Amino acid sequence: MAAADSDDALVLAPGVRDALLDHAREGADRDPPAEICGVLAGERGPPDRVTATRRVPNVAAHPRTEYELDPAATMAAIDRVEDRGDDAIGFYHSHPESEAVPSATDRARATWSGYVYCIVSPPDSIRAYRYVDDGFVELPVESSE
Question: Domain MPN: where (predicted)?
């Protein structure tokens, strides 16, 4: 995994960190645990600034260990984001039982080059990666709170 450019980061607006962690904890508290997912909204940078999240159902066949954003719900979420005048910054999902690093499945399914893929691991880990054509580049996660 490559290092990010010194100007590249993911900045979370007030309340976004809590929204991500709360959603991830909901998935972790299920029986069995399940990965959750959604869209990150805000302003593309660098640095990218996330001002809101949009939850999207996980329709993966094995939600305990993988995620798949519901395609129709994802496009509807992106449309809502853009209708508000914001940008789709990227996507988020959780790893309820593992570290917040891209799994082999995450790497194989990443397709949105230049976008952020944020991984949340309860109780309080949030890490971000920009997907580029040859893999993921980790970004610092900052809070504007």
Answer: 10-137
